[in-house]
């Protein structure tokens, strides 16, 4: 059953000799939705503001980390000849695709912004840096920006509802390239022909394997969505100049479905709003209170809750987390990644190890985006000992709840069974994170602002925090000449204190 207000579109491979008119192409349907995107309703406008603040919060916290610094250095080597968009953290305008690159890496680096999980998983907040950069460069208004972001969220989430990528080992950013192209098209009121060609190009250039999230996970995990956003801006530029795309990109005989996903016989059911209908998918997404893979959010909160019941953690003999197929195979022992138990693993690997995350959350009773992943923390002998006692197990009921068509009933948590050395078994479960819309402490505007204040502390001066927040809450009302103010600058010395980086080509 599709979400309310959406209609299901059947998508499958078509032979080259088959009569398949363009108005039936999935890319054309998406282009029509983007071209006729209506102004966002008040509830959606408010959530767009929340997610702009959320993206800025996690970007501020990552500004001095190596991957965002490297991406920003690349961006600063590409100043805008005219127009341009701000690179967050510095007072410089760069070419919009490079602003999207730098800001996108900063947003994604800590794995700490919003998520949507269904047939595929996604971080729809990745749409914001490229759509914002394109709007700032093109002289769009705040209302244009909000409409574009709402469209980007809608398309990425709807693709994630109906088309699984990870089972075919394709990275989830293959849904992001098309959604960004659609979002920019909606914001700039581009012709559907232009949007159609941009979607095809963006998808064609952003399909990659899931190895970026497997085994020894590197900093490319942060770069992958930024690359998709940058590629989508470039695709829009080419399409505006009259350049075309492979078509039909999803359904072609050698297209994405036939060669990268389920094959020539696969059928996908994609729910989409009608052209001109409200786009509300952003309201079905959810942000993170903790800097870790989303399926670990409820498990962190569960660990906090269990600490008092266990007492002396050295008494733990084994821990089994009964959870969904996705959690078990992506961040659990079902992934069969020995790196997930390696005390010397990268931060990117550790935040995809629910065994590590559960052990540290049990021991500390708190979670921090840096301290919880430090080498000293990961290599503590008592942590390593507890960590290796934790395993996950796939549970059919948790898998069913993970995919429940009703967003209010969907669950991303686990049931923990902790066996003590005396044989006693302690059992508890948590369906959704406390910060989830259905959780114990759902995030609202005040929580988003508090998250920004906390993560920007020591990086962005208080008066600059105030200025940014005052601008963000007016996002839908900003004039074209004000949209460039939707950025922030790091406090003096905050960036200079970071270690120097090797030079690149630029």
Automatic annotation (TrEMBL):
<feature type="domain" description="MmgE/PrpD C-terminal">
    <location>
        <begin position="290"/>
        <end position="471"/>
    </location>
</feature>
<dbReference type="Pfam" id="PF03972">
    <property type="entry name" value="MmgE_PrpD_N"/>
</dbReference>
<dbReference type="InterPro" id="IPR045337">
    <property type="entry name" value="MmgE_PrpD_C"/>
</dbReference>
<dbReference type="InterPro" id="IPR042188">
    <property type="entry name" value="MmgE/PrpD_sf_2"/>
</dbReference>
<dbReference type="InterPro" id="IPR042183">
    <property type="entry name" value="MmgE/PrpD_sf_1"/>
</dbReference>
<dbReference type="InterPro" id="IPR045336">
    <property type="entry name" value="MmgE_PrpD_N"/>
</dbReference>
<dbReference type="Pfam" id="PF19305">
    <property type="entry name" value="MmgE_PrpD_C"/>
</dbReference>
<comment type="subunit">
    <text>Monomer.</text>
</comment>
<keyword id="KW-0456">Lyase</keyword>
<feature type="domain" description="MmgE/PrpD N-terminal">
    <location>
        <begin position="24"/>
        <end position="266"/>
    </location>
</feature>
<dbReference type="GO" id="GO:0047547">
    <property type="term" value="F:2-methylcitrate dehydratase activity"/>
</dbReference>
<comment type="similarity">
    <text>Belongs to the PrpD family.</text>
</comment>
<dbReference type="InterPro" id="IPR036148">
    <property type="entry name" value="MmgE/PrpD_sf"/>
</dbReference>
<protein>
    <recommendedName>
        <fullName>2-methylcitrate dehydratase</fullName>
        <ecNumber>4.2.1.79</ecNumber>
    </recommendedName>
</protein>
<dbReference type="InterPro" id="IPR005656">
    <property type="entry name" value="MmgE_PrpD"/>
</dbReference>
């Amino acid at each position: 059953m599709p979400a309310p207000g959406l209609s299901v579109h059947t998508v499958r491979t078509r032979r080259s000799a088959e009569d398949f008119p363009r108005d039936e192409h999935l890319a054309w349907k998406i282009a029509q939705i983007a071209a006729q995107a209506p102004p966002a309703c008040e509830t959606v406008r408010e959530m767009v503001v929340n997610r702009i603040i959320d993206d800025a919060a996690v970007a501020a916290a990552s500004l001095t980390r190596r991957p965002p610094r490297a991406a920003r250095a690349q961006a600063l080597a590409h100043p805008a000849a005219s127009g341009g968009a701000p690179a967050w953290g510095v007072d410089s305008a760069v070419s919009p695709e490079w602003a999207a690159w730098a800001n996108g890496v900063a947003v994604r680096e800590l794995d700490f912004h919003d998520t949507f999980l269904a047939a595929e998983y996604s971080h729809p907040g990745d749409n914001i840096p490229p759509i914002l950069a394109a709007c700032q460069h093109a002289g769009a208004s705040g209302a244009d920006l909000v409409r574009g972001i709402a469209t980007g969220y809608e398309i990425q989430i709807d693709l994630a509802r109906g088309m699984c990528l990870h089972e075919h080992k394709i990275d989830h950013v293959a849904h992001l390239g098309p959604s960004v192209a659609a979002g920019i098209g909606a914001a700039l009121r581009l012709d559907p022909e232009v949007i159609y060609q941009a979607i095809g190009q963006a998808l064609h250039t952003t399909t990659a394997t899931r190895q970026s999230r497997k085994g020894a996970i590197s900093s490319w995990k942060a770069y992958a969505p930024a690359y998709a956003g940058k590629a989508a801006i470039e695709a829009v530029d080419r399409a505006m100049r009259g350049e075309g795309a492979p078509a039909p990109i999803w359904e072609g005989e050698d297209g994405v479905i036939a060669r990268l996903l389920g094959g020539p016989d696969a059928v996908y059911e994609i729910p989409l709003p009608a052209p001109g209908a409200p786009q509300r998918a952003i309201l079905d997404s959810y942000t993170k209170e903790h800097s870790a893979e989303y399926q670990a959010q409820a498990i962190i909160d569960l660990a906090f809750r269990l600490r008092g019941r266990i007492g002396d953690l050295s008494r733990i003999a084994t821990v089994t987390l009964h959870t969904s197929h996705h959690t078990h195979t992506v961040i659990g022992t079902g992934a069969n990644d020995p790196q997930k138990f390696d005390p010397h693993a990268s931060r990117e690997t550790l935040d995809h190890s629910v065994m590590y995350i559960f052990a540290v959350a049990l021991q500390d009773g708190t979670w921090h985006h840096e301290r919880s992943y430090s080498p000293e923390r990961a290599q503590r002998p008592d942590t390593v000992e507890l960590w290796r006692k934790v395993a996950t197990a796939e549970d059919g009921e948790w898998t069913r709840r993970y995919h429940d068509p009703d967003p209010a009933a969907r669950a991303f948590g686990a049931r923990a069974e902790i066996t003590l050395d005396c044989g006693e078994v302690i059992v508890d479960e948590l369906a959704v994170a406390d910060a989830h819309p259905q959780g114990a402490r759902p995030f609202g505007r005040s929580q988003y602002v508090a998250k920004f204040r906390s993560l920007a502390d020591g990086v962005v001066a208080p008066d600059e925090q105030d200025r940014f927040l005052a601008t963000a809450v007016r996002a839908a009302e900003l004039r074209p000449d004000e949209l460039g103010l939707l950025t922030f600058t790091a406090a003096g010395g905050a960036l200079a204190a970071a270690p120097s980086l090797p030079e690149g080509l630029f």
